[in-house]
Each structure stands twice: as structure tokens, then as C-alpha cells.
Amino acid sequence: MTGSDAPPSFRLAYVPGATPGKWVRIWQERLPGTPLTLLAVPAAEASDLLRDGQADAGIVRLPVDRTVLSAIPLYTEATVVVVPKDHLITAADEVSVADLADDVVLHPLDDVLDWPELPGRPAVERPATTEDAIQLVAAGVGVLVVPQSLARFHHRKDITFRPVVDAPQSSVVLSWPEDATTGPVEDFIGIVRGRTVNSTRGRTKDERPADTGTGARKAPSSAKKPAAGKKAATGRNASAGRKPTGGGRARGATGGGAKRGRPRRRS
């Protein structure tokens, strides 16, 4: 099969902690003829991967190089501190950066948080990766502050985490090369933004469904209908457009032309 005969495909990169599964399932339902390939990539390498054209789009963390990459925000994560299960911090529901002042706070080389000033006491040596730092936390060497998704991604039975209310946060975006906004990229943007399969976005005026309405307003569904067996308030013959019987007088009017009721029985 030559390159021109190959079916179209879409390559989606994603960083640790990102969870593209929901969007991938929608893609597979809507575009079964276009294979989607997932590419796991370290956060620090995601921008280079997109710039080099090795992926069509990526679910990555800010910052990204906005001179060559487009990006739309997806969500901002809560930040947590990962600690051993017997740590004093576990007695609280949430903590502040100041509460970590006496702890050794690990700062791995692949840290994704933008710290104006590192909290706590520094470790003797920086771990190479977040995964290495998690192992040191389990060994009781220190604690680690990360986005919540990374704490869950590296979950272990002997550690837990608590929210840090005033720590920097990590924002996740969908990013792609600005000069390569292809049809599949537009399709995936529509999926993450929640557009329906019948969305008219991107269609021309002629491609949109015609408006077949007459302009008349539909009666509210809450309008009450006459009860069964009862006549309308306008009279027996009004709905049919007929004139009242009995010389043109309405039923119940006085005069000889009025229809009489059943005579009463004399006692």
C-alpha cells in the first residue's frame, strides 16, 4: 500500500496524568474509519514532539511555545502533597505551603509546577523523575507536591495525599502546530469542546438543514384542554360555525323561540 492509499490517521500525544480515554471513545464512535494512535510522552518532551510533527495534537501541560503551537484550555488541576500514610499531615483535610516548612520537600527534575519559591527544606539531591520521588516518599525520605492526577497516576498503598490550598496549579491544554490545523485536528477540537455529531460549526450556509417552519408559534404544551364530555364555553354549535337553533336565540334566553326544558311533574 502506497502512502497515498493509506487510510487517514490521527496521532494524539498525552502527558502523564492526562486521561484522554473519554474523548478517544467518542472519536472511535464518530470516526471509525480514522484510526487514532495514542502516544505517551514525558511532559518536558511534549512541545518538541508537536513541533517536530511526530504527533498531530497533544494533551499537554502549560507552558507551551505559543509562537508555533496553538492551545485551548481543558482544565486546571488541584495541587496535593504526597506523604506516607502515617505522616502527621494526614490528620488534616487540607494544608498550606507553610505547613510543609519542617518537611523535606522533594523537587524532581521533571516537576511541572512553577514555584516562585520552593517550599520546605531541600533534599540533598533532586530525584530524576516524579516516579523516583514517589518511591522516596514511600521510604520516608520526604514529601512531594504535585498535581492531583500525578498523585493518582503513581498511587501506592503505603502513601496518600492531601490538597495544598495555596500551591501553584498545573493547567492542561489541547495543543497542536499552528500551521497544521488539519481536518482531524478540527474534529478532535469539536469532541473536547462537546460539540454534537450534528453540529453546524464549519458548514457552509448551503450545507445547513433548511428551516421548514411556517413562522407560527406552537401552543404551549401546558395549555389546558377541555375536560372530556364538556362543551366549549362558546356554546354547543360555536365550534362548528353553526348558528344557534330556535329562531336565532341562544339556549336559555327568554321568549317564545327558546327551546323549553322538560315540564315538571305536578304533585
Descriptive overview:
- With 267 residues, the protein is of the alpha/beta class.
- Helices cover 15% and strands 18% of the residues.
- The chain has 5 helices and 9 strands.
- The chain has a 5-stranded mixed beta sheet. A 4-stranded mixed beta sheet has the order 6-7-5-8.
- The chain is elongated.
- It starts with 9 loop residues before the first strand and ends in a 75-residue tail after the last helix.
- About 21% of the residues have low confidence.
Helices, by number, come to 5
Q: How far is the first residue's CA from the last residue's CA?
A: 108 Å
Instruction: List the helices and strands in order.
Output: EHEHEEEEHEHEEH
Strand proportion, as a percent range, falls in 15-25%
* Spatial strand arrangement across the major sheet: 2-1-3-9-4
> From the helix content, strand content and strand pairing, which structural class follows?
alpha/beta
Radius of gyration, Cα only, in angstroms? 35 Å
Q: Looking at the structure, what is the overall shape?
A: elongated
Count of individual beta strands: 9
Oligomer classification: single chain
Uncertain residue ranges: 202-226, 229-260
- Give helix % range: 10-25%
Main sheet specs: 5 strands, mixed
Mean pLDDT: 81
